[in-house]
């Protein structure tokens, strides 16, 4: 059998990247108001336009960015900001653990690239279970297009924030909740996942009411534990 030519491999990689871009496109569009809010809010927090854009380009973590900016605006110390953002982004550790078997065999350049591009949205489209082999070009296409969309939206927010007053009062933050709903709901295909979601929801509300900063991590771990326990007790198929 003839080995595939270099041109064929390149075309296959490009096709996979385009497919990843198209699959994540609805989530990229949904996150635009969120990105605009991040750009505008960064200016309100006292950052320059260049610093505001650099924050999205380097940190690339929507919820953590907004929380950190709010703390900067409130004059909170650097240590508290770092601890809080670490807790918020700790779910990425869980994402990495879930995808470990698929990503570990990849070369270092792929692990670093996909690790930087890993978001809630990329995890939702790329993590299709252990029985599916992850195509790195598919994940790269989805992750990089989402990265571009986030940074373009931030740039729009920076420009709009300099010309339109009170942009944060336009209700753009609803995009945060809408994006997570769009990620989670399609994934509820089994009772164990439904239990996981419901337990996480209740625990996150309890932690929020009790002002527990590690609430996100506690809610996620509680949901996973209950969902896994249900699956084992009932013998639910994977």
TrEMBL record:
Record-annotated membrane-spanning stretches: 20-43, 55-88, 138-164, 195-221
Localization annotation: Cell membrane
Pfam families (UniProt xref): AzlC (PF03591)
Gene Ontology terms: biological process: L-valine transmembrane transport
UniProt-listed InterPro entries: Brnchd-chn_aa_trnsp_permease
Topology of the protein relative to the lipid bilayer: Multi-pass membrane protein
Source superkingdom: Bacteria
GO cellular component: plasma membrane
Keyword line: Cell membrane, Membrane, Transmembrane, Transmembrane helix, Transport
Family: Belongs to the AzlC family.
Protein name: AzlC family protein
Species annotation: Shewanella woodyi (strain ATCC 51908 / MS32)
